[in-house]
Design goal:
Length: about 375
Amino acid sequence: MEEIIYVDRKNTNCNKWDGQTGMFGEEGLHAMWVADMDFRVAQCVVDALEEYVQLGVYGYYKIPEEYYQAFINWEKKRHGYEVEKEWIRFSPGVVAGFHWLVQMFTEPGDAVIVNTPVYYPFLNAVKNNHRTLICSDLINQNGRYTINYQDFEEKIVSKHVKLFILCSPHNPAGRVWKEEELKQLFEICRKHQVYIISDEIHQDLIFGENPHIPSLSIGDYQELIVTLTAPSKTFNLAGGQNSIVIIPDERLREKWDAYTQGNRVIGGNAFGYVAAQAAYEKGEEWLEKVKKQIAENYEYLQAEFAAKLPQAVVTPLEGTYLCWVDLGAYLGASEMKEVVQKKCRLAVDFGDWFGGERFGTFIRLNLATSLENVKIAVEALVENLS
Ligand SMILES: Cc1ncc(COP(=O)(O)O)c(C=O)c1O
């Protein structure tokens, strides 16, 4: 029987607990940021890695057929999506993947659109590559987010947008997009010849009623879309640096292959493959248990805030384990760091990171941890804000 085991990760060289200085200017904060889990991985992953470690030889690795099959079976079983092996490529992380795709699909100066607030490396990928960032804000109705199609299309046309980076499910707005929402976006993109990077790294962390819809599984938009996904969020394997690129369209695949061959990136780290294969083959029971813990943490947070900080707007968690909360009724944007970090002693992802000052009263809390840790964070906020 699989058990979910909380691990005290302090002093293990993990970013979340031991690497806070870069973003917060200090160490020792109660860590509710960085999207990885404080849970020990599935036992099948430990067993597979142990077996490989015991081999004692870590030379060049031939990606086994079973690795591809494990991922293909997972996609079919969990999402009803049939991926063909020929479509699958590698990148050493989804973030690296979308940086490369920005370079592949656009030229310096070209406009790239995102739906803000959004996972901030999207913004960096555009800026780091000297492209022009265009933000189309989601519509926020009391914490529930939808797409502003009119704004999205107007900006695509007026700014001559070449590329859209989609976050599906959406970090930090917690949305699991419905098929009709995705279709509407894709129709606009097709009409104006805009390529789409579909970041589906949170695809397996679904808590609401909407199922995750793989972008490539709907309609005939394949000539526009490259999907990025990974076992890293699902199975807590981010250190394995193994992510998956899905490219059904032959022309886009040729583009990708030319780019990666030009940079001599053909495959990843052996340990990452071993871990990913085991997880996709045998990690399902573990994932279901982890999701239960995350759901429990979210229910606790929601109930506590409703009772003790009733004007905090907690976004419904349809997907991801990242909870987006607006504290604007209690704090101004300029007070956030002073209160949340200095007084509450919390390391959270601050709202302005996700697209600017207008999100400055938000925080994003990582719920993939013990209920005790969530309680510490919630109690600190209640004490200092109520
Ligand atoms: C939307 C999204 N994409 C990508 C990543 C990270 O991907 P990777 O670690 O594979 O580079 C995250 C992590 O939080 C994320 O939320």
